[in-house]
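Hi, here's the filled form for the chain we discussed.

Project: internal
Contact: R.S.
Residues: 89
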Amino acid sequence: MLLFNIYLIYFSKNREELKKCREHVEELEREHKLVISELEQSERENNTAALYRLKATDERISQELDNELRLQKQIANTLDKAEYVANAS
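And the returned structure, exactly as it came back:
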């Protein structure tokens, strides 16, 4: 019974982390779309100062998005393995 309760706590925490991670990915994707739109507008207006700033922002968001997607996959894999072990026991 104690082991079962530990598994429940572990699953609950990991599921919550996965949910937060997915929400952050969605937020980053919205932010990325906005930056791309602003980049296109700055290019049309030949606003070089804004272009450099927005390109840097785009690179930062892209890197953060890649990291968050990797973390999401890692958490999902950890949950899958833990559920497999729990079901096998």
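Let me know if anything looks off before we file it.
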